[in-house]
Amino acid sequence: MHFFDTAHKLNAMPALPIPHFALYGEHTPLADAELIHLELIETRSRPHDWHIAPHTHSGMFQVLFLLGGTVRAGVDGADWVCAGPMVITIHPGVVHGFAFSEHAHGFVLTLDQRALAGDRSGQHGGMFTPLFLQPLRIPLAAAAGRLEALLQQLLIEFSAPRQGHDVMLDWLARSVLLLVLRQHTQHQQQSSADQGGRAGFDTFGHFRDLLEAHYLEQWHVARYAACLHMTESRLNRMCLRLGGKSAFDMTQQRLMLEARRKLMYLPGSVASIAYELGFQDPAYFSRTFKRETGMTPKAYRLRSLAGPETDPLN
Is the pLDDT of residue 310 over 50? Predict the structure, then answer.
């Protein structure tokens, strides 16, 4: 099947709820000792005609290294067409699917979130936070060759454990992520690290964690600020600097992102979705959704069913 013939299905509404996997197609959680998994793109995509249906990973970060070929990625309703060399990062809970061009090649690195908590010395706990605040597309440019060499070494170590296996996996995986982080920083117009320092990244990451845990409760910004031991104005400044939006706008964006997911992927009525999202009045939910997206929930659902090419939010 042609690449673009399958790609339109990535954001279409499936008949069943979005599946959750440890690795795609596998429901068995990774073993406690296996916090890092690496495989070739073709290992899982070729048997599925180069098409990976929409799914999520609970507690797992995923990094796609596309070194050659093309991928069309559906990521939380967005439609990305990327040519290698390119990195795509996916954080836990994000609905995503891929349609690869035939003979696309590269690697898929899957990391348990515990693997990013810090190195074995207990240092550098927040170093990689900027890569996993939101899904990213990072051009690799000149770093592609160096990254491919490290990934090949990581695959060899993963396939043939020897003495110090866990330490070597950890070291190689962090080396790979560090090169990706450097590329990401290089492509930013201004360095958030220079402006806010490591503590700013860590606090912003904590805010994102709180938001993910409590957005359905529709916490006020003041409550998030209190949990972070900071003022509302300081929280807003941090969110504007690191996220490009105010704290309130980020809470609304997360709530509407969930609304978009449910409208695209689940068959429930608009009213039932409104109640699930914590709205007492479905009409108020519809007004809020239209203010944030420019479309009513019903119109957005109908537009998404027509395919990603006609979705104005992509």
Answer: no
DSSP-H helix ranges across the chain: 3-7, 41-45, 144-159, 165-187, 192-214, 221-227, 232-243, 247-265, 270-276, 282-293, 297-305
Burial grade of 172 (CB within 10 A; 0-12, 13-18, 19 or more): buried
Both tokens of 182, joined, read 């450097």
Residue type, 222: A
**Can you give the pLDDT at residue 34?**
60
Domains, the chain, ordered by start: 3-187 (2.60.120.280), 193-310 (1.10.10.60)
Which residue has tokens 């890569």? 131
The structure tokens listed for 139 are 């051009």
Tell me how far CA of residue 119 lies from CA of 98, 169, 292, in angstroms.
31, 11, 40
Question: Number of helices and strands (H, E) in the chain?
Answer: 11, 10
Dist CA 37 CA 216 (whole Å):
32
